[in-house]
Amino acid sequence: MRTAFAIVVLWTASFGALTAAELTPLEQAGKRLFFDDQLSSPVGQSCASCHGPEAGFSGPHSEINRQTGIYPGALKGRFGNRKPPSAAYASYSPARTYDDKDETYVGGQFWDGRGADLVEQAKGPFLNPLEMNNASAWVVVQKVQKAAYRPLLEQLFGKEVLNVDERGADKAFHKIAQAIAAYESSREVNAFSSKYDAYLANRAALTPAETRGLALFAGKANCTACHPHQKGDDGSPPLFTDFTYDNVGTPRNTVNPFFQQAAEFNPDGAKFRDLGIGAIVKQPEHHGKVKVPTLRNVAKKPDPQFVKAFLHNGVFKDLKEVVHFYNVRDVTPDAFGPPDVQENVNKDELGRLGLTDAEENDIVAFLETLSDGFSTPTAPPKPLPPQVSGGTFPAARDVLRVDRLIRHRTATLQRDDTIRR
Predict the structure, then answer these.
(1) How confident is the model at residue 379 (pLDDT cuts 50, 70, 90)?
(2) For 370-401, what is the HEC assignment?
(3) Is the sign of the CA dihedral 289, 90, 223, 404 positive or negative?
(4) Would you call the peptide bond into 42 cis, given omega within 30 degrees of 0 as the criterion?
(5) CA 71, CA 57: separation in Å to the nearest integer?
(6) How far apart are CA 218 and CA 367, in angstroms?
(7) Left, alpha or beta for 88 (phi > 0: left; psi -120 to 50: alpha)?
(8) What pLDDT was estimated at residue 76?
(9) Over pLDDT 70: what percentage of the chain?
(10) Torsion angles phi and psi, residue 210, rounded to 5
């Protein structure tokens, strides 16, 4: 207990002078890669094309969100099958494991948990023919070899890493992905600067509607069953996800362009059903379950008219609509249509919540307090460090505790180093 207290004190005292704009060299390199639209085939699509900071590192194009919610790939006419998840706070997700007690998978990356860690997640879109459409890791490496920021990567990893031919492409590609994962783990992407964070730090007061919404969120609406809202025992801010998987009965998105994709990508055509993690683990009892997303930045958008798409297939276009669906799904099922995957639907924790229209509005008001940018954070935790594929991944809370002390020492003792953790 004494050790844990000391770490919390160090964490609280050490980050007050830092700003979200301060990135380590590795994070800076990752940011350059993240926003580089020359790394797709054909060129024109970057990571940020689907994960824009103005929309909480989720889909940044209002019209796409309004029409289908499903983003096009670099090659015209190609589309994935799901809306982009938020890249923010993904660095906290542990490696995928199975919880025998709760009979659920926990952790992993992507909606279906197929990514082992954040580094593997960063690699995925580059080689996905429905996304950035590069034929191989070598194609990506060749593009990075020509980039203006190549010297920064060589400074970090050594000139020999990028000075390779096709035989050394996999190692170079892995370093590229590590840099992107470092940026996605940075304070710029995981700011912990929402009004709710300020409220937890006694630096802001919630409005009456927000206060009522919080009480409903934690009580009658049962949102905290999957989206924990309280600080950890060590003082760490809540992540608003438990990283589990669930089938909430999401209706079919009838305008999903993936239904029209070529048979090599979608052999089921219009009959496609998104089995989620069930398709990855090949277990029918998990068909239709997708990863519980963080609710941080769920309402973040660049302007009031901006349309966001919600749930994994982008079927809903309004946050109130989502709350209403969770509230009355089983009361007025015809209003939404049948679930895309009808087996394994969670009927214990949602679908008949008994909320009034005013209470739904109050919950939305609370959810709007979770958008970053309300204030400059004074003491946010650092996300989990990018891990090498195949490594172990401790529980998020444990890493948070240890990582605070590590980063405090790094910032204090190694500020002038070329590479900082």
Answers:
(1) low
(2) HCECCCCCCCCCCCCCCCCCCCCCCCHHHHHH
(3) positive
(4) yes
(5) 14
(6) 12
(7) beta
(8) 97
(9) 84
(10) -65, -40
The CA–CA distances, whole Å, from 361 to 131, 146, 241, 254 equal 36, 51, 21, 27
Of 409, 387, 394, the C-alpha closest to 11 is 409
Report whether 179 contacts 186 (CB < 8 A).
no
Q: For residue range 31-83, list pLDDT tens digits in order.
A: 999 999 999 999 999 999 999 999 999 999 999 999 999 999 999 999 999 99
390 C-beta neighbours (distance < 10 Å), count: 9
Six-digit token pair at 189? 């992407």
CA 365/CA 194 separation, integer angstroms: 13
- Contacts with 337 (C-beta within 8 Å, 6 or more apart), sequence order: 251, 252
Residue with tokens 């207990």: 1
Domains annotated for the chain, with CATH where assigned, are: 2-413 (1.10.760.10)
E strands in 84-147? 97-99, 104-106
Dig out the tokens for 51 from the structure: 């994960």
Helix or strand (DSSP H, E) at 291: strand 290-291
| DSSP H or E segment with residue 245 | strand 245-246
- Residue 375 is predicted with a pLDDT of 73
Distances (CA, A) of 151 to 147, 159, 161, 163: 9, 8, 11, 11
**How far apart, in whole angstroms, are the C-alpha atoms of residue 412 and residue 195?**
29
pLDDT digit string, tens, across residues 215-264: 999 999 999 999 999 999 989 999 999 999 999 999 999 999 999 999 99
Average confidence score pLDDT of the chain: 88
The tokens describing 298, both together, are 């769920």
Rounded CA-CA distance 375/382 in Å is: 17
Q: How far is CA 104 from CA 39, 66, 292, 322, in A?
A: 36, 32, 11, 23
Q: Quick one: what percent of the chain has pLDDT higher than 90? A: 83
Look up residue 145 and give its two tokens: 């070899």
Buried b (16+ CB within 10 A) or exposed e, 343-359: ebbbeeebbebebeeeb
The 3-state DSSP class for residue 356 equals coil
d(CA 72, CA 188): 26
Locus of tokens 């996800």: 241
Please, which residues have CB within 8 angstroms of residue 316's CB and are 6 or more apart in sequence? 309, 310, 322, 325
